[in-house]
## 1
Amino acid sequence: MAPAPSSTSSAITLNINGEKHHLSIDHRTTLLDALRERLDLTGTKKGCDQGQCGACTVLVDQRRVVSCLSLAVAAEGREITTIEGVADGEHLHPVQQAFLDLDGYQCGYCTPGQICSAIAVIEEHAAGWPSAVTDDVGPEAGPPPLTPDEIRERMSGNLCRCGAYVSIVRAVAHAAEAHAEDRTAATKEAAA
Amino acid sequence: MKEFGYQRARDVTGAVALLAADPDARYLGGGTNLVDLMKTGVERPARLVDVRELPLDRIEPTADGGLRIGATVTNSDLAAHPEVRRRYPALTQAVLAGASGQLRNMATVGGNLLQRTRCGYFTDAAGPCNKRNPGSGCPAVAGEHHNHAVLGASGHCVAVHPSDMGVALTAFDAVVSYESADGPGERPITDLYLPVGDTPHRETALPPGALITHVSLPAAPVAARSRYRKVRERASFAFAIGSVAAALDIEDGRIREARLALGAVASRPWRARAAEAVLTGAPADGATFAAAADAELAAAEPLPDNGYKVPLMRNLVVAVLTELAGRDAR
């Protein structure tokens, strides 16, 4: 005999950009809809709503995911970062600054997703993750150079229908270089 | 979307008990396929049992020199794992060839194996489909089937299994462990998926409500020299129209051992045993590779609009084996 139907909504707490939000939520609500419709965090954009365009990309426990295929109820207890939370106060995140400096957008609709994705791409690459265009995936090979081909492959989950890809690739490359220099400087400082 | 209950499973036994008690419940892993299908009404579960916090997120070496992969390991973590990259490089390549960075961070190993076909008739809840609604017919046979099966299909269903990961796991003889209401069990991945026949709605040999807990890779020295290559309609983030996972062990110009599996050609990842039989013991040259591909594809039964897959797969097999042989010779 099937058990009595369980409740179809829950009271949950979401940790978003370091702030706790309490809400009662229908289980059908995606993380994307919770952010936009319930919490007024409209920086995260709804594009295809089926995991194909990347406009809704956010970071969950520092990993990039598509919020349109994430259920809000399943995100409880995780650390969620949206585009509203990537800057350090008034200081833009280096990836945000690179997109501004190098015109990494046209209409801007896909940009929050592109930026959240690029922040994670740079971390994944720094951690040594190979990609589908990495020639040697062996663990001794080390991170491949972050060439335009590597950036295009790693960013392929983010579509830009304006076609601003040329500038997006430049912006990601620029931010990745700055990130690598920061890491080198930090390592030297720690050694000194 | 239909309303549903939601629970987080704390342990494997509890998760299996929840599914056993409710035939309309489903396990929720990364949700990249299930949530999408729920939005369109193809899946209408009454309850989701979230298994992502189960202690199944480790990749561990086994005593026999293989690896034991937990079912909730994400695609990203599987692909990035140093021992996977060292011992089974084609598996890393296969995983990285699938989906996008965001989806690989969400998707899990267990879910990848149990994901559903992307056949457009299956995903359109309004129309007929024998897999979704048994006995309603298969519009793909006379309809849109340019990316459908050429091996092992039937007139009842010509859909292909969409996994890249599964193709490499099939080449390497992975064994799938599960827990069910009747206790634990395991099956070689080559016996996980049922023949299509006239029951395309029955996809796997797992007991009802079973939860995949691990996927084990036996030791396979041949896999250290392996390669996955995928052909698709755009450069990235698309399902395969054909793919190959292959490994070769060559000594003095002869093939000591060969592994070959094909993707996007059948309702399951297709282990190419006829090709392997031709390869084993034969000279590692182009003539052997072509004969091996032909031996496997002799059974192909293309439809009017997917005949291109036969020469495509032949060329792909020959190209990947040639590349592996060349690499070995260096």
Note: Chain A touches chain B through 47 residues (CB under 8 Å).
## 2
Amino acid sequence: MTAQDVMVVSGTEPRNERALRRQARGEQGRLVALSVPAFFLVGALVLVPMGWLFWLSVYGSDGFTVENYTRLLHPAYKETLITTFELAFLVTGLCVLLGFPVAYMASQLGPRWASLVMLCVLFPFWTSLLVRTYAWLVLLQRRGVINSWLMDMGLIDTPLKLVHNFTGTTIGMVHIMLPFLVLPLYASMRTIDMDLMKAAANLGASPVRAFWGIYVPQTLSGLGAGVILVFVLSLGFYVTPALLGGGRVMMWAMQIERSMAVYGDWGAASALGVVLLVMTLGILWVLRRLTGASAGSGGH
Amino acid sequence: MKSSMTDAGATSVGPAAHAPDTEHSLPISVQSLVKSYGAFRALDNVSIDIRSGEFMTLLGPSGSGKTTLLMVLAGFVRPDSGSVTFGEREILLLPPHKRDIGMVFQNYALFPHMTVAENLAYPLKLRRAGKAEIRDRVERALDLVQLSGLGGRGIHELSGGQRQRVALARAVIFEPRILLMDEPLSALDKNLREQMQIEVRRLHEQLGITTVYVTHDQREALTMSDRIAVINDGRIQQVDEPRDLYEKPSTYFVANFIGETYSLPVEVSGSSVMLFGQPIKTPAPPEHGDRHQALILRPENLHVFEAEPDPGMNSMAGTVRQHVFQGDSIVTYLTVAGDREIAVRRQHRSDETLPAPGS
Amino acid sequence: MSVKRKIITATAIGALASVTTGPAFAQEAITIASWGGAYQEAQRKAWFDIVEEELGIEVLEDTTSGAADVRVQVASGSPTWDLVQQGNYTCALLEKEGNVEPLSPEVLAVPGIPDSMKGDGWIGNLVYGAVLAYSDEAYPDEKPDSWVDFWDTETFPGPRSLRRSPVYNLEAALLADGVPVDELYPLDVDRALDKLREIKDDVMVWWSSGAQSAQILQDREVDMAMVWNGRAQSIADEGAPVSITFDEQVVLSDCWIIPKGAKNKDLAMKAIEVMSRPEVQARIALFINYGPANLDAFDTGVIPEDVAMGLPSHPDNAAKGFVLDAKYWAENLDRLTQEFDFFIQE
């Protein structure tokens, strides 16, 4: 044994320092390696297709072109864009109005009843979209269940126009979208400490004030998630507006489909896709700022 | 108002006796309160009078009904029958938000979407206080709980103790005349808990507010209260000052629940009490004539002698099993009369030698 | 155990299939893609069997859902289909895009198929009509039999339906506005849209699929509609009180195209020639409710008279209407669809 060995063992230098650092580096390396598949997945499934989409929209057979975008200046596209966002906003708003009480009720019930309510909310998920949409036709059309019933009751003389228009599309879409709002909202409501409501009452807040001032702000994160889900999904809707809209409700997705299937125009379809993507991201950004701001400054 | 106060059997006023301040506090009178959940009686004909400005602790094991009683006072539990008056006003039919009482919740129930200052301002805003007044009172409340300068913090940025202080400040900022506290310190660690006990007590003395405090921790109850109401099975067992409760428990339950105790069976005939066939001296004659009763022993009142003690003292023979060192004291576990275990606590002195186990 | 056996069977079939199409095998084959279902089964019985017999080749089948499939195959450089069925103006559209092989003079010279049903790279094979269909319950006495009647909401009140496309709506509107049939093309689009605007509020549904058009007639969601004759006929056959008129019908034809660069295009060309002959064309009416594109087929005696009278391409019926100008639509579809979309949403 040399003198140097003794010194190391005696601890005048930090012991195992090198080996420990090597271990830490190894661990880091393994973590990075683990995330590599995720990077590739995101790259291959999101970034590459989106880049390709954008490329197709600006590069035609004659080189670079903005033609695919200028053709969108036709008023028909403007109308479609307005309809699409109008419908998405309306559906989202109605889902909030209908979904909030449902989620609230479910969150206040005991576990057995709550799961029953949630079962009812989720039930539409297990039925085909087409079946549900056709079922609405049976209910809403001119000689459908609702109109026949109202006429038999003598409440109306001529059938109400409930379907093959904006109204019918909205009804059908709200029905399909409701679970997407209720689920995250319910999840956030479940975690709300109901003692907060007691505290509010104790401090002098009437039930109504406590609800708006204390309860609702706690639901904003879940509500925000639900709203964004419903809104984004609604923007891309196709089947329901096509079947319940009577051909009047033209959605952006229908324009994309038509560009592809009828004209085979990848450039036009890509441009439509890019525009929808940009608009959606824009709206999301605004929504984020709105809900983020209100969550942070609820009391001001 | 004072005429409605009844003496609940205590013979003296508590240690923190001060003149009842009717401007800042109100007496509470609970009469014949009954609350059943199915066959279970959470409150079984409960009556209790709490004096104006008093610090009253409701003490009992979990499920005893102490929290139910507090919740009835707060208005969150609707009883089957009975009466609760604050001062002369019957409040049982009022909704919680009209009762004007402060409350500190077990988990603090601070509003997470508001800052500390916003939490404190909330009850003032509900009472339509002006902006300047709110700012002023929030400032003073923060001072009161020694959190000056933290008004802008979010609730999530606070430590447990700080949250506790905010909850306290919020409960009293609107100057309620009654304060309810539901096991407010149970979430804190031991050191902080003891510190906060003093803090709460200090606040009480400063504000003079009638306080009803619920806990299952007897040490906490003994430390803080003017009087303690021991509750079990939905019934009030005994209402007394801490000292009396400790020294003169009126029921077997109270005796067992308060402090560390060991009980030994005794036979009573007339005024004589027999322990394992030996007569013993008692400070007072037995209160009732049942033949089989229990002798309650507290470890700190017993002594271990290796030699035969003074014949004037009550004594019995036993075998030392084990010594347990607890820092400031040493507990010696013994067996008496074959299989009965008792314990003896004594101050720890380093020069002392202990009887060996088995002797 | 059973899983293993399945895999072995599948492999065996795969091997067999590759042998059948392999060059070492004497028999040649072509692949035809059509709409599938009952439609393609009828084509198999009426035409493909004859082709196999006549040319001594094998006809392999696939299904297509429209022009997009053809574009993708052509773009890939080696189409797997040799012959593809498409809907009327889509053939002309694909030809315009340069996605089809020009047809041989022999094919285009087959007598009996009107010039309006063929182009340089496509030829009609099946005829159907966009016809006026109406509810007999809604109109028990006087029946509508023209586009003027369709526009006449006084005499014939009730909700209507049109296809959600400018194709043949513009034609119907111009006819209703008094434009003679032979002056329809090129379409006066503004005039047609103005006319459509008149009944816009009475059009309850702009249908987008054949199934939907049948459903709304059957459920009496609408009382009058312009639909494909086969759809209206099938619900009428099921007992729905729905009638159709061939008066002023828009005669439409489905058609064959050979994708650009198809491997067996010469064989495919021969197959088209066989299937276009009057006596072969006629057979289709025996298996499905569509008419032959070759009008000479009605002279072959193959189609029973009562069946023939129900077909849109029967000379009597065809004479009542006009043939859609597929070339016009191939040229103008994109622009007019935009105009029409705007009209619908305005």
Note: Chains B and C do not touch (no CB pair under 8 Å).
## 3
Amino acid sequence: MRLSHLLAAGAAVLALTLGSGAADAQALDRILKDKKIRITAQVDSAPFGILGKDNKPTGSEIETARQLAKDLGVELELIQVSGAQRIPALLSDRADLAISSLSITSERAKSVWFSSPHGALSIVIGGPKSVNIKSAADLAGKKIGMSRATLEEQEVPKIAPPGTNIVFFDEHAATQQALLTGQVDAIGSAAFLINDLSKKAPDKQLEVKFTVVTAYYGIAVKPGNFDLLQWVNSWVFVNKHNGVLAKIYETHTGVKLVDLPAM
Amino acid sequence: MTYVFQFGIVFDRFHELLQGAWLTVQLSAISMALGLSLAIVCAFLRTTGPRPVRWIVAAYVEMMRNTPFLVQIYVIFFSLPAIGLRFEANQAAVVAMVVNLGAYATEIIRAGIQSVPIGQIEAGRALGLTRIQVYRKIVLFPAVKAVFPALASQFILLLLGSSVVSAISAKELTAIANTMQSTTFRAFEVYIVVTVMYLAIAVAFRGFFAAVYWLVFVRGRA
């Protein structure tokens, strides 16, 4: 094939991609007509999305998706994604909604539209009762462990006073083990993980020292899908006030859902 | 799609990588010295010690050579505190590297010892030298000379293997790179720079070993 043919074929593919990528102003109508909604499912982020005993996806975000589809009166199709694919799946029209513990950030808001928050994740400092930490200032001189590539890795150094010894591990299991074996004084971690850990090792008397930051999760749609976003926002409003969202969250994470602000 | 390289982010924080590289060099150098000493003692016990001692050394060597380095590090850092033996991350790293290198080097030196002609050892014994004197004055020198290239390779492997100790929060070169990568998302740039740094360190160590070989085995005993 000659080069000009290749270029022409490339241009055609590009035009098709761009064309199908245009916003679908009648997304809600289409979903209602097809009687099917496609929602992302990230199954490697317990307790928000995991594979249950029978290999069926479950977790707080996936149960939220099930509830939403039920209330909309359509069939649910779960689109399995990795963490990095949550937004691309929306943008490439593989999914109508992303409900995968996607925290609302101004960076992400450049590429997707968020609903009002329907969930939250608090990053806390947790440690044994015997370690005296009440606020960020008490971190000075302490050895604080945390896992790389997490929200705590970004947020804890910002509030840590000079003299805090922050050490990093590659995964949560190692960070938690370091806390249990006393290799670190405390760890920065998601609140529910501290809760989990204190149940597994009650003799260590672990507790949450203070909250560093709370990230709020939203449901994301592809930019342009006004009608769908409008319905999702109403749905979040209703289920925030009737307690359904809080109940799903607490069942799966074991911690209370914080007050969700409106957006 | 074209990827735009941004090495500026890496070089702005280059001093952090240098600190990490320096710790890598320190951890490796200490472990090489202690590991070699351990291996010389173990190789002696393995070849000339009483039978039960030989078995103990053999058991140690086989245990270290047949379990993953990462697991050994975890045992030292996470399991030993349970019996009251607590090491800081850097100490745990050195202990792990020493016992690991010790096992491999024991086998290398043992091979060297077995290459020394038996007549040479018998001659020493006939002259009235003790076992330890024979080992020190007659066996060790030609044995180490014979296996020096293999030892040097093992040392370099240890240096490169030291990247694994980032798993227990030792802040060596790989640990710094991992952290930098996860905060800047510039994985490609960070790891390219770190690769070049490891290469430079390894080449420097090889140069050092070549100099030692020349000074001790070539010029010393021409």
Note: The first helix of chain B runs from residue 7 to 12.
## 4
Amino acid sequence: MNHIISVLVENKAGVLAKISGLFSRRGFNIESLAVGPTDDEKISRITLSVNAEEHSIEQIVKQLYKLINVIKIQELDPLNIVERELVLIKVSADSKTRPEILEIVSVFRANIVDVGKKTIMIEITGNSSKVKALEDLLRPFGILELVRTGKIACSRGSKS
Amino acid sequence: MGKIAGAQMIIKCLKEEGVEVIFGYPGGKVIPLYDALFDSDIRHILVRHEQGAAHAADGYARVTGKTGVCIATSGPGATNLVTGIANAHMDSIPIVAITGQVGTAQIGTDAFQEADITGIAAPITKHNYLVKDVKELPRVIKEAFIIASTGRPGPVLIDIPVDITTDLIDENFKVDISLPGYKPTLKGNLKQVKQAAKKITESKKPVIFAGGGVISSGASDILRKFVKVAKIPVITSLLGMGSFPETGELSLSMAGMHGTKYANLAFTEADLIIAVGVRFDDRVTGKLSEFAPNADVIHIDIDPAEIGKNIKVLIPIVGDAKIVLTDLKSEYEKYIEKKGIPDREQWLSRIKKLKEDYPLKYDRNSNKVKPAYVVEKIYELTKGDAIICTEVGQNQMWAAQYYKFTKPRTLVSSGGLGTMGFGLPASIGAKIGRPDKTVIDIAGDGSIQMVSQELSTAVTNKINIKIMLLNNGYLGMVRQWQQIFFKGRYSHTCIDNSVDFVKLVEAYGGVGFRVKKKEEVESAIKKALEINNLVLVDFWIDREENVYPMVAPGSPISEMLESEMLEGV
């Protein structure tokens, strides 16, 4: 099962390495990871997406808590969060296929951020299923490059 | 305000932490630090290999309860500490390791004697620091000692680039510590403690399983008091030995692969395990799915990650063993006051029967020097009052089986990592920590050769440890496995005639003698204890003696192999 874990850490050198190292040495796989400072520059947030059984997740969270630089961990409830990922997709496009691609892009409310002679670069923001759907539709045109930020998520309502 | 160099600040901070002794080895990047140490009254023990420094700091910490400190230079000095740090990490021993590092400007350039020791040591330290500004030193050192010694103890490494040790800093510079993510839970949740007390009164066949956490939290006293009230038999892990007196009738000694059969059977028959400061290591549980099949588990541990890691737990209590046991005892007393003392006569007589039926045994009539006999004699002649260090392997298991531990912090043994070569340097650290005690290293000829250079450390510093070498000319534990599980094919485990140990110890300035006959064992031990020098007694034991009983790997602990089943295989 997919779990999203949000980890508040001290913004110090080497902290990310300690966290990713913990995952690999305990045999857990990170599916996606996004890091950035919070409103407090001393604290960063790491959002991890992990595919694991319930028991393993519990163990991951407990092991993460043992890292001295980890301040707080939240396991986000997938039903009660806003989840986003930003993806840049570079697609092959010539004069024939361009209109069709533009149409798909507009349906998905994605943006065209660059147009070349033979390519189009598309920016899409959304949850995984939306991104996946766009990716599937664009694949036949030839995806040249796909870059994703990793998931970020925030729980809904007043819960922090 | 006067200015001092970073190196002097380090010494000043160490003194503020109450450090009395440092085990270390100088090198290029710690010359300024050693220069500052030269003027200090902190005792420094110069080891002969950095691994020895880490193990000595570990042994010192185990017997005193204080944090051990070791120093090594950058690069190879630091990497030589790694085994010792990993050992302390696995057994939750508080040590602070200080390593030199190349100058801040050279970091990352593959400079001479550069190693990314904070990266290398990350998985084997509780925490580590790379100091990048001299102003961080006071805070980092303070934090390191707090982290190492509180919560679940463990090693902390501080990597200090050489320029930081020469940079100047105000003598009285101080910065508050900042550990927003570090708050160990000490007091157990009272609701769960009450539930546990209730569960214990309802149990017909409870056992207590006491581990290293009981010793490190200083809970041995309260454990004894609780057992006195509750009359529950006590099993220990290897690291828990000494937490409860093995001489008492409620003691079942050590469980597990080479534990007593009665402890393993008690686990298997129990309906409740009250586990305190243990982590249900695979050497204890054997085949996990068949471990204690009838028992519910109350697990008390300071590390939440240990609870539920290996086995299912009914009542988890996160907290310090001493505090939780104190609460548990008073809740239990309230309970029995209301409901009466539970009747456990049947269980206690069953325990008594198990102990009678399955005692530890070896061939007492043999004329050969049996290792168990040697350990029994050591126990007798030290009146059970010595600090026993062990190497790793058969010697370690014989020591655990046949020495009766009655006090906490008297067994110093590498449990989790199983580090050959631990015993000699650890016994050096132990003797420095407890100069008033007889410190004995029960050694094997394989293990001790991994660190025999530390004989020099001991002799030159007049650290009069007694080494009881159970010499069988084999890497005995591996040979035993080869005999039982690999058709007796002794692949690369025979090391006989590798060295004359008597001459070796004499070369270092110690005293050595050899014992080949059973009737010489007692007088040799007596003599060793009387001589005011480092003594090594080279016992030529029965070469192919095995450690029994034994749980075969992958088997449940209730199925133990015993000597008569296998000898002659």
Note: Chain A has a mean pLDDT of 92.
